[in-house]
Design brief:
Length: 70
Amino acid sequence: DDLYRINRNAFHPQAKCFSYGCYTADSMSYVWEEHTGLRLYASSGKTDYSELSFGRLPKPSSGGSGNYSL
């Protein structure tokens, strides 16, 4: 498990961590916080990657339950 290799002291105490993968909030947010001590802003639904070609970050899909949750 690569999360065990992350040094929680490498992060600023007020760092904001984002994950742009689909459903990451459901599958990884709790584990991330346990290992790093920081909350993970992550998608709880599908992620829309269409903006990447325009130099913009992905965002939750407008359809369904996609949003970034804490």
